[in-house]
Design goal:
The protein is of the alpha+beta class. Helices cover about 30% and strands about 35% of the residues. It has 5 helices and 9 strands, in the order αββββαββαααβββ. The radius of gyration is 19 Å and the shape is elongated.
Length: about 200
């Protein structure tokens, strides 16, 4: 059943509502308000989840950056459908997002990579994310190699495998804690005509 606007205390636009909660979280969470659990799945339905950092949320979707050759990158290539979960303990609020992931334009990824701190740019070159490494020293030696190759005052190119992703939401659920576990839950679903339908869920 579709709710009337008067039946829902949230904005009819879930992206606008997300950014309102995110702004509040940014003022209250001690560490990484943009931290989100990203759940992906292999083509044979084996799930995995990890924390990544949100870089932008707008009408086009939820954006993050990572190594395409990592486990999550491989799983996104195999199965582009994924879910996100934000949990802000200090606010006692949670948001779940599900939809399809696409790779963003490479020029946009280049632009963002150039803004990263020097050591993170070097780390993107030195780390074969999710692959095995025999020791910490091996990683540190690779960091030294790339620091010699790309001095701190030089322009460091973005590795080809370092990309940006955008999750295009089809469903977004807003959850607010209440006493006796009688939580408020509102689910937004995008209809075929692009309109967001809102329903209230039992706790």
């Amino acid at each position: 059943m579709r709710l009337k606007p008067s039946d829902c205390p949230l904005s009819p636009d879930p992206i606008k509502q997300f950014n309102l909660w995110y702004e509040t979280a940014s003022d209250n969470e001690m560490n990484d308000p943009g931290a989100m659990a990203l759940a992906t799945c292999t083509k044979d339905a084996k799930p995995s989840v990890r924390m990544v950092l949100l870089k932008q949320a707008d009408d086009s979707g939820f954006k993050f950056f990572t190594n395409r050759l990592s486990q999550k990158g491989n799983e996104i290539d195999e199965n582009p459908y994924a879910s996100l979960c934000f949990h802000w303990k200090s606010l006692r609020k949670q948001i779940r997002v599900s939809g399809k992931i696409e790779i963003i334009d490479n020029k946009e990824a280049d632009k963002y990579f150039a803004t990263r701190p020097y050591n993170r740019q070097i780390g993107a070159w030195a780390s074969k994310q999710s692959h095995t490494v025999d020791s910490r020293k091996t990683l540190e030696d690779k960091i030294k190699i790339y620091k010699n190759k790309y001095p701190e005052d030089s322009k460091i190119p973005k590795p080809e495998y370092w990309v940006g992703y955008r999750l295009i939401p089809q469903e977004i659920e807003f959850w607010t804690d209440n006493p006796d576990r009688l939580h408020d839950r509102f689910l937004y679903k995008k209809s075929n005509d692009g309109i967001w339908d809102i329903t209230r869920l039992y706790p």
